[in-house]
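Researcher: Excuse me, tokens okay?
***
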Amino acid sequence: MTQPTPSAQLRAALDLAERAIPVLPLREDKGPMGNCRACVKNACGGRPNMKTPGPCVCPAPCHAWAAATTDPHVLTSTAWAPAWRQAAAVAYHPGGAELTVVDLDNADAIAWARQNLPATRIVPSTRGEHWIYRGSMASRNDARPGIDIKSVMSYARWLGPGTGTLATLPDIVRALTVKVPATVRPASSPATGSAPAGGGQCPHRSPVYLERGIAMAEQRIKEAADGVHRAVYRLFLAVLSAHGRCGCLTESHIGRLFTAAQEKGESLRHCEDAWTNARTTLGM
């Protein structure tokens, strides 16, 4: 018996799966499809909200990012066939491929990225661009106006390979998932820019990773055109979120950050307040 010819979407999905990128089918409205007979068009009442597979009683996750797979036998299975026949596009789970997508939804968001983020692979999207970095992190919608972060427990539409070379996920992107208070309150008591005690497992392969993070934060502080207080706080937060729990960060590194901030006009007290508030936000 002649096997049916795979749809264009399924062929694209199988090609991505061969490159270790977990994939899933999307509806015309860009929503994820239920990938089994009982869940086609979300008939089971599942919740394709990128957080859980849904309340259905299927033998395996069949919704959203949790359904993404690189297994060709699953992708071409009878259970998934209805979904692929109706699929309008292919999505992938960036976190499952150790990637992060910075989804820039408008011209202002793109301008911000060009000013603040390191160059990386760029894929044009319907309304903006996807900037893709090597490394996974927590996802967050509306991380900034017009910017979503799609990585772990999220999915992104596959829009092609893009152009440019993948860069390592920078600290400034990691910091975007940490909610920043509308106003940064001064520390309630005198503060000093001390390094956290550490004690966690160090994830850094070499000191070069830390050095690059500190140098990038220094440069971003120096380039801040306005909102210097907020920029300093956010970058202190970025450095601490990436390097503050494992004991790598030294007083020398902190001194470099403080120096960069003071050269932009920040007082020592403002630096100390920003550092203390960043540590408090991260529970350090």
Q: What stands out?
A: The first strand starts at residue 23 and ends at 26.
